[in-house]
Amino acid sequence: MKSGTFRAEEIWDLAVCTLKSRSESLYRQWFSQMTALTVEDDLLTIGVSDDFFRDMVIDNYGDLIQHALENINGRSYRFELKSGVLPRRQPDIPSAPAAVPVQPAVTPAVVTRRKQLFSFDNFICGNSNRHAYAMARSAAEAPGECYNPLFIYGTNGIGKTHLLQAVAGKISVERPEMVIRNVTCDEMLNDYYDLLTHHRGTTEFRAGFRDVDVLLIDDIHRLAKKTALQEEFFNIFNILYQQGKQIVLTSDRQPCELSGIDRRLSSRFEQGMTCQIGMPEYEQRLVILRMWRQTHLTNPALPDTILEFLAENISSSVRRLKGCFLRLSAYAEMSGTEDLSISEAEDLLHAQLTEESLARDIRPETIQQTVANHFGITLGDMIGKCRSRHVADPRMIAMYLCRKLTRLSSNEIGEIFGRTHANVLHAAKTVPERCADDDMLRRSLAQLERQLQK
Predict the structure, then answer these.
(1) In the chain, which end has fewer C-beta atoms inside a 10 angstrom radius, N or C?
(2) Which residue has the higher pLDDT, 435 or 103?
(3) In terms of Cα–Cα distance, which of 122, 128, 120 is closest to 283?
(4) Pairing of strands 150-153, 214-218
(5) CATH 3.40.50.300 is right for the domain spanning 8-82
(6) DSSP per-residue string spanning 61-73
(7) Domain regions of the chain by residue span
């Protein structure tokens, strides 16, 4: 290891001193919870508690960390964050045994972190997410007895992971004897491929789920086209379900819209409770921002005018809303600005505000006309009853783009096209499947998206 005379802990200690001098509150909330793991050449690996923590640090404070690492006794370092590491320094972790271990019940430190970031108490309810909240809470209060499986779907960054982690946190506190397996679909996929790489049987993979009481998997749609893993998960799902174990899954689409998933599996996703979660409305977003202001403890705190500005203009994702809030909070604290202005906020968030504006400006009528022009048909054809392929295919593409690029529901899109909710769902599922096999269609779709988003 070519790291000179400095160990990872020493490098990070020096960087943390710089970060702490910049902002005491940021140090307490973020940097003090990070643990140096290894240094290889000029790459410092730092451990953090979970994926949410990792993403928030990279998105909002990555430049600060990089700056602090640029002159450590005459040498500059890069960094990467690794999730799943408890706060503060821990002894070196031994190599994993050959068999995949059963995930233990959640540790106290992780429980504390979840209670702080992802709990039912700090989940703000409204019309867009009240049903999903109620179902998740019921599953946490009576695991395996009410809604099983519970399938929560919606677009990225609107609270699915929050509810999933809230379920895990509540069960781990109230039923500590239960074994909880809480993973993303990608993590499950990596575990599976790791076994295959080391020429071990899939029996070991299933063993990792044998004693699980609660199985929570985020982004289950990532199983698409992973045929071998789908077969393994199908068997795991059946065993746990038959034993009355609680299963909670999240996805960006509802089960009937999932492409590349075996129908046997998607039908099992539908046999419990399926509920949609939407982006919080303006009033909810404002309450969320005020809650963050109370817990973030920056000095000075962001004024109400800035919170109202954020709630009004950032409406696509709670994750993006949080990132924008943290960026403005950090700027206000480091610059000592007591009364941050709207114009300053607009300058700092120019890229995010531009994307939000583009998303809001795409109207279904614009999509219909753009697609009709591209394929050489009329707007009348687009909303008419003609079923010939030269008209039906562009109509299906337009419905798919409305589903992807607007916030309209399937019912609303169906009404615009003179079609049913089922027709829209069929388009949303079929177009991506056909693009996988039809390069010309895929290029046309990409061209249309770029044109609409200019």
Answers:
(1) C
(2) 435
(3) 128
(4) unpaired
(5) no
(6) HHHHHHHHTS-BT
(7) 8-82, 108-276, 282-360, 363-453
* Continuous H helices in 32-159: 51-68, 108-117, 130-141
Q: How many CB atoms within 10 Å of residue 214?
A: 25
pLDDT value at 285 more than 60:
yes
Q: Give the pLDDT of residue 92.
A: 37
Please, what is the average pLDDT of the chain?
Answer: 83
Task: Look at residue 87 in the predicted model and tell me its pLDDT.
Answer: 64
Indicate the class that CATH gives domain 282-360: mainly alpha
The two tokens of residue 151 are: 């399938």
Highest CATH level, class, for 108-276: alpha beta
Q: Which CATH class is domain 363-453?
A: mainly alpha
Dihedral (Cα; 79, 86, 153, 145), 10-degree rounding: 170
Q: How far apart are the C-alpha atoms of 348 and 302, rounded to whole Å? A: 14
Model confidence band, residue 74 (pLDDT cutoffs 50, 70, 90):
confident
- Cβ atoms 199, 141 nearer than 8 A: no
Give the rounded percent of residues in the chain with a pLDDT score beyond 90.
31
Q: Angle 250-128-271 (CA atoms, 0-180°, nearest 5)?
A: 40
Residues 6+ positions from 346 with CB-CB distance below 8 Å: 353
Q: What is the pLDDT of residue 89?
A: 41
